[in-house]
Design brief:
With 131 residues, this protein is mainly β. The protein is built from 2 helices and 9 strands; from the N terminus they run ααβββββββββ. The strands form 2 sheets. It has a 6-stranded antiparallel sheet. A 3-stranded antiparallel sheet has the order 2-1-9, with no helix packed on it. The mean pLDDT is 96. InterPro entries: Met_Sox_Rdtase_MsrB, Met_Sox_Rdtase_MsrB_dom, Mss4-like_sf.
């Protein structure tokens, strides 16, 4: 996958204030406030920055945390990760593999079949419903 790189000012011009804060500055939306936390529409969730397919609604589950949660990405190449030591703890940050947008974090407390929970900010996503 070819990387999409843009100056921060270009992202600022293209994204809403919330999307820019979350995706480009590593922010987090408040729990239970995001557009997709309780959405059950069948479809594919794409990156709000670059439109890469990230998660399928088939892998979405209600984690009770207030953020959209998925037990696996749409493909193994869709997601990148790195260690995050902010806020005095160690977490795994989840990024869009194409544009490095901050999406959320990965936790080892999800359901079968993977046991993983991709805890993702709604602001980093846009849903394309299935026809």
């Amino acid at each position: 996958m070819d990387k999409l790189e843009k100056p921060l000012d270009a992202w600022r011009d293209e994204l809403s204030d919330e999307q820019f804060h979350v995706c480009r500055l590593g922010g987090t939306e408040r729990a239970f406030t995001g557009k997709y936390h309780a959405d059950k529409t069948p479809g594919v969730y794409h990156c709000a920055c670059c439109d890469a397919a990230l998660f399928d609604s088939e892998a979405k589950f209600d984690s009770g945390t207030g953020w959209p949660s998925y037990y696996q990405p749409a493909s193994n190449s869709a997601i990148a990760s790195r260690d995050d030591f902010s806020h005095g703890m160690h977490r795994i940050e989840v990024l869009c593999a194409k544009c490095d947008a901050h999406l959320g974090h990965l936790f080892p407390d999800g359901p079968k079949p993977t046991g993983l929970r991709y805890c993702i900010n709604s602001a980093s996503l846009k849903l394309k419903p299935r026809q």
